[in-house]
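sorry to bug you again but im stuck and you know this stuff better than me. theres a chain ive been looking at and ive put its sequence and its fold in token form underneath. id like you to explain what the token line says about the fold, in plain words if possible. anything you notice is useful, everything is just below.
___
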Amino acid sequence: MQRKVIAELLDEDLGTPSEIAASLADLRHINNWFGGMLTTIVLLRKVARASECNRLSLLEVGAGSGAVPQAAQKTLLREGIELQVTLLDRVSSHLPAHGGALLAGDASHLPFLDNAFDVVSSSLLAHHFEPEALRLFVSESLRVCRRAVLINDLIRSPVHLALVYLGLPLFRSRLTRHDAPASVRQAYTVDEMQNLLSQLRARRVDITRHYLYRIGVLVWK
């Protein structure tokens, strides 16, 4: 299954305010039902344990409503790990109206000093980038982080695409019904991600598979 780039409607903000709100709600459900939140929680737990640290500052890039890092924050706090979250999105209207540090900005030129956060994280963002742009994003994230860059994304496969089409009736927004299969078609395989990130100047790159066709990446600084 070849990678095929298809513009996503939510990414381009191509919808009415109510359609966009419904699509962001769909994304929260997708991450909750199909492994997105769990993937980020597992990876952040690994960073905390490897760093022997019970307090982590996190920048979530392409954060949208911030549901994924906020879910991780609640879960990890019960385990004694405190997560201080900053949300950044290119489209300011996608960010929540309140709830912590919020900022509009470009993922390829993060508006922060070097080593500003312990972790720079993203969920369902990496597949939007072409290979060179993805390397640029991860390099920029390495500049801003102190410990690791976390990538939580989809794995491209025909079976995954078929499951997405079967699940389309679950979604409220026409944006999601367009964007969900588009996301799978332009996602990277595990091997592609490994090859892309092996060219970076990083201490180590750990790539793991997660439920349901999720890829988890930790690029260690």
Notes: The domain at 36-155+188-220 is CATH 3.40.50.150 (Rossmann fold). The CA atoms of residues 164 and 180 lie 7 Å apart. The chain has a mean pLDDT of 96. The radius of gyration is 16 Å.
